[in-house]
Amino acid sequence: MRPCTPASLFLAAMAALLPTAAPAHAEAPPPACATADEPDFPLTTRLHGGPDTYRAGGGFGTWYLELTNTTGRSCGGIHPVVVLYDDKRALRASQTVLEFYTADRELPHPVRLETTDEDELVGALADDDAGFEGFTVGAGRTLTVKVRLALTSDAVANEVVATAAIVQRHEGDGDWVGQSDEYRFRIETGSGTGPGTETRTEPGTAPGTAPEAEAEATGPRPTAPAAPTPPAPRGELAGTGDGTPVGALATAAATLLAGGMALLRAARRHR
């Protein structure tokens, strides 16, 4: 399995998040969650509860993204950015349906996946059209986000790794405030049973989690469609011109890669 380095993970995360323009009704950006004098990420992040296997053309498999705020201050404007990379570099955004839930509504939010130059799929848990301005994790609290994934019938048999970079958005910029572990799964093809309905594994929420910290929607669970349809992608990240936020990011990305991890540390984006 090819690696996803910390630098490439951060660049993929920022490229996925920054094209989403800040909503016109947005309030002032939240205070910075990360500080220069703290060596570790302020949010610890864990992916858990997902199935080991997805069947192409099957239903959704459900997993959970757990965010724990290790600081004494609230962290708002938080957007996890999911990164999927596969052995064969064959998985396409058009074959992948990714959705997440928030506590304020029953229906899931769609995640728009983009393809990077490294054939990774990246998608921010962001939905400005619905007025979602990011998650807030209270000081010392844990928030669990329900995510679900399905693959269309033309996806090929493959080994896939999912991981997440956690970004705190500040209008047209962002801070890297967390990074998850890896969630590995297989895509299988042909007849047989896959996750034809949602996986019902419940999150192992840390003791003391407040009710408002649960991002899973309440009420009846939506029924997984037999043939999920992915949202229309905005196109490959590398194809965006210099006049867009992604184009502006390209220059910063080149500088970041040239500077390597030393620049990441200098910018307070490191473990």
UniProtKB/TrEMBL annotation:
Secretion signal span:
1-26
Residues passing through the membrane, by range: 246-267
- Disordered as annotated region, ranges: 186-244
Q: Where is the composition biased (Pro residues)?
A: 222-233
Q: Which domain of life is it from?
A: Bacteria
Which keywords does UniProt give here? Membrane, Signal, Transmembrane, Transmembrane helix
Task: Write out the coiled-coil annotation as residue ranges.
Answer: none
| Sequence ranges of Low complexity compositional bias | 196-221
Q: What is this protein called?
A: Gram-positive cocci surface proteins LPxTG domain-containing protein
